[in-house]
Amino acid sequence: MEKFVTHEGTAVPLRASNVDTDQIIPAEYLKRITRHGFEDGLFAAWRKDPSFVLNQPQFDGATVLIAGPDFGTGSSREHAVWALMDYGFKVVISSRFADIFRGNSGKQGLLTALVSQDAVDQLWKEVENNPETQVTVNLEERTVSAGGFTAPFEVDDYVRWRLMEGLDDVGLTLKHVDEIAAFEAKRPSFKPVTA
Amino acid sequence: MALTLAEKVWRDHIVRSAEGEPDLLFIDLHLVHEVTSPQAFDGLRASGRSVRRPDLTLATEDHNVPTIDIDKPIADPISAAQVNALRVNCEEFGVPIYSLGNAEQGIVHVVGPQLGLTQPGMTVVCGDSHTSTHGAFGALAFGIGTSEVEHVLATQTLPLKPFKTMAITVNGKLPAGVTAKDLILAIIAQIGTGGGQGYVLEYRGEAIRALSMEGRMTICNMSIEAGARAGMIAPDDTTFEFLKGKERAPQGADWDAAVEYWKTLQTDDTARFDAEVIINAEELSPFVTWGTNPGQGVPLNSTVPGPDDYEDESQKLAAEKALAYMGLTAGMQVKDIRVDTVFLGSCTNGRIEDLRAAADVLRGRTVASDVRMLVVPGSVRVRLKAIEEGLDKVFIESGAEWREAGCSMCLAMNPDKLTPGERSASTSNRNFEGRQGPGGRTHLVSPQVAAATAVRGTLSSPADLAPIGA
Ligand code: SF4
């Protein structure tokens, strides 16, 4: 996982609340066998509508998603996070996230920045008025700013630390590889092997 | 400190424990199948990591494989792609695999125990909820998600927060004709499909001690249907007998050392469980489900319940919905329910003892003319053993279809499916809407009830059958 300290990029205003994971990525995409390449499934149903915000050229290349409250509810599918990341998003900003989605995001390295709804409204206005506005997300300071506006955001301390160190769960555990090896060395000889 | 069985196994696998962090647990056995592993291997590849302990990892093909014409290519492209991905991944990462056609292939939860790979006091994981099956040996065994599969592949460990513990004590003896399946269906009906949430269940008491390993696996298998992450039974002489001489079981001095350790894996007398449930085995009778979740079960000798039988509003609603989906009316005799199909198999009841029990009922009898019966061994080994004992002939002569090993009609992922409206008596573990095929209706039953139902065409127990020759 790449280290995440600050991120700067353009943003997409997604004016919708209760965006569930079936909307983020429909079930038909779950049959795939790869971990990558889910960008085509992201909001697949909504993207059929040419006026959907992701289809508007002024938001091409955006890396920050500013969503309404209760983002990521519904099924626990990890594919929702993979789809957002494959599409290019590094940060999702909302005033409320579903727990499992937030947990999955933390594991994969997608930052979910929790801000007040006022801040969401303000950010929406900024990027809608000027889609080229650079949104800066500073994980160290826990702030998000756009234009002249700055707001604090909440993030779990442990997740923040992991993102800043660039450690995914596996990377984190592998820091303790010596302890794993020491445990292995002590395992009784009667334990079975598969081959 | 006095500890429960689950706590002892946990304690013995802590690699690292730190304030404010989950414990890092070592995993003794990681079982892999084709459905939940491709993204995990893909993740390893993307980060340039390898499988830390291929020698503690084992893959088998089960969910997607057909149970007839297994020498032909798999017809469904998605199934074929998943099976093929598993083969490619195992080859690339050096993981042992039992593919379709191999003498050791079978359902992941049947394969581990029959090789002697599942042993007391181990931690066993698999990207499959019915990993709880392996708890029958006194192992701490539970299902994990795809990210966790990747984590175990890369590190052979998992960061975990401790579970709560629940004792389920089954006192007395099971009456004749009442099986492990009836017992677990009755337990789930009593505690509910959410009753075990957050707990590791430990089954204990006289009736549990009297069960064979196969019966214990049936019980632990369905712990997940009670909402629990895992189910366990303390190892005893039955466990040691089962393991002795199996390929992957310890040999010689290792065997003695292992048994000595395994004997310590009992819940201490003064240990405390977070919750306790007591069941009286003597009151039980053959049990079947009538609805669309495994908690909606009743004795075979009773009537189909309706909304009025429940106090709780949400249960009333659930009952109404289930009756509509199942095409049943409240108050009708359960034994009047006619089935189209009988499925004997799955990781719940696809072992040799289950096949023997069903064959004993079918010997000298015939499957009703309007019923199709599928007999699907849980593994190639079970299949060969059954053939050696002549059980295949009993099934074929009675009119049942004798199939190759796999998950088959337990879930609608391979060609064995129910058609809309079709009704089955099934020895599997889930009766959810559409589980055995879109619109299919499932009644969960024991192998004995499955066989008797095949003969009479309505849900029945062997006691309902006319004596042979009469
Ligand atoms: S037999 Fe059924 S429950 Fe068991 S592993 Fe296969 S699909 Fe899952």
Query: Could you report the average pLDDT of chain B, rounded to the nearest whole number?
Result: 96
Number of helical segments with 4 or more residues of chain B:
16
The unique ligands bound to this protein are:
iron/sulfur cluster
The strand count of chain B comes to 19
Structural account:
The complex is a heterodimer of chains A (195) and B (470). Helices cover 31% and strands 16% of the residues of chain A. Chain A is an alpha/beta fold. In chain A, strands 1-6-7-8 form a four-stranded antiparallel β-sheet, covered by helices on one side. In chain A, strand 3, helix 2 and strand 4 (91-94) form a beta-alpha-beta unit. By secondary structure, chain B is α/β, with parallel strands linked by helices. Chain B is built from 16 helices and 19 strands. Chain B has helices at 5-11, 38-46, 77-93, 108-115, 146-155, 180-191, 206-209, 213-221, 237-243, 252-262, 313-326, 346-349, 352-362, 380-388, 391-398, 447-456, and strands at residues 14-16, 23-26, 29-32, 57-60, 97-98, 123-126, 140-143, 157-160, 164-171, 199-204, 230-232, 275-280, 287-289, 297-299, 341-344, 372-375, 401-402, 423-426, 441-444. Chain B has a five-stranded parallel β-sheet with strand order 5-4-3-6-7, with helices on both faces. Chain B has a five-stranded parallel β-sheet with strand order 17-16-15-18-19, covered by helices on one side. A four-stranded parallel β-sheet of chain B has the order 11-10-9-12. In chain B, strand 9, helix 6 and strand 10 (199-204) form a beta-alpha-beta unit. In chain B, helix 6 (180-191) runs parallel beside helix 8 and helix 13 packs parallel to helix 16 (447-456). The N and C termini of chain B lie far apart (62 Å). Bound molecules: iron/sulfur cluster (SF4). Iron/sulfur cluster (SF4) binds next to helix 12 of chain B.
